[in-house]
Amino acid sequence: MDLAEIDHRAFDRVAAAKLRGLESVLPRLSALADHGKLWYLVAAGLAVTGRPSLRRAATRGLIGIALASPVVNIVGKQIFRRRRPIIDNVPQVRLHRIPRSPSFPSGHTASAAAFAAGVAMESPRRAALPIAGLAAAVGFSRVYTGAHYPGDVLAGAASGLAAALVTRLIWPVSVPAEVVPLDRTVEEVTPSGEGVVIVVNGDGLVEEYLRGELPGAAFESSGELEDRLERAARKAKVLAVGGGDGTVGAGAAAALKHDLPLLVLPVGTLNHFSRSLGIETVSDALNAYRSGNLSRVDVGAVNGVPFLNNAGFGIYPDVVRRREKLERRWGKWPALAVSTVRALRHTAPVRTSIDGEGRRVWLAFVGNCAYGSHGTVPTTRGRLDDGLLDVRVVFARRRLGKPGAFAAVLTGSSRLGYAKWAAESLHVLPSADDLLVSHDGEIRGSTSPIVFDKHPKRLAVFVPAP
């Protein structure tokens, strides 16, 4: 018995089956999945939740569909040109509009599998499993309604899974870093928040919500941010800071100065550090606080100023400033490309000495712990306590000029001047005294020399319960 005969017999068995309650449901599900409508609706539902992980999941799922659909429907079907099943044995009530295109592989199933697999890469199980079940139901409905043989569906599912995996080459998966909880929990943690002093930068609604959740906590709400953080740290047992990465970095400096545990409240635009901790919402932060779980993470420093994510110089501060304005709407990679072009337009490479070696530098990125991505675009970190700086530099090469620098930023090619290494410190002596340096999105001038170094496992932070 060959595979085609097995496929035909399996189709006949499904055609003869009568699943009570599903005779009208599955045909409607199959119709809803036409042209990806079902998955666009699911993606919209994930996006409106406001959770960054679910928005990323929706985006990755749609990218998977965009890759799988043309490969299956334009290339695969034209290569194999398999005829649709004979539907004499399929009850009339199930019959949906039978397409005239070739049968192998199933385009509906490819889109369903690509979307479900993409969602599973970015979202928690409670969101991924129902969507995976829905995708499986779509695949089965294609056989149940007489549109495809089971082999068509299996091939479509394999194609969709392959497309989802390809998305990882285009856009690395965002996963929290591995954080190791301390052996003890915080004795000062109370359900109502006594001993917690909260500083929220610029969001009154969040502050109002926190007053309801932690009625025993105190707030510092007036004055300049650094003054508020200093006042809060002097009287706190736990310092809670809400804002973007720059605000959280300033909060970390205050927590380090007064040897306090830090509770990170993600109310900024991008919140890279809190996402590395596995905290995506204020609710996640409160759950981490109530669990009492602490971890100690590394802190980077540039001339003594702490940073939690990364720092840099050359065109990097300008690229960061421009990219953050575009990233939320366009995504990281398109925003990076546009920002790099704009930053390169009116600039020249910086003449510096790096660890005693004179070089011309277009861009220098210094990460607090190793980032998993290749090239000069930071994505996620596997750990937050490796004791190292992740150094990535694009050196200027006379023959290549600005086009070569742009290509090196995007591709991370060593032939174009890109270099990467790990270090415990980095000493930079720029030829100009007014070199701009960025750290955690904040940009300021820095005195010469510039020293990047590490403080391993210095900062105690609340992390979600294992």
UniProtKB/TrEMBL annotation:
It comes from Actinocorallia herbida. Its main location: membrane. It is a multi-pass membrane protein. It is found in: Cell membrane. SMART domains: acidPPc, DAGKc. GO terms for cellular component: plasma membrane. InterPro entries: ATP-NAD_kinase_N, Diacylglycerol_kinase_cat_dom, NAD/diacylglycerol_kinase_sf, PAP2/HPO, PAP2/HPO_sf. This is Undecaprenyl-diphosphatase. Residues 220-306 form the DAGKc domain. PANTHER family: DECAPRENYLPHOSPHORYL-5-PHOSPHORIBOSE PHOSPHATASE RV3807C-RELATED, SPHINGOSINE-1-PHOSPHATE PHOSPHOHYDROLASE. The lineage of its organism: Bacteria, Bacillati, Actinomycetota, Actinomycetes, Streptosporangiales. One of its GO terms (molecular function) is kinase activity. Keywords: Cell membrane, Hydrolase, Membrane, Transmembrane, Transmembrane helix. It comes from the Bacteria.
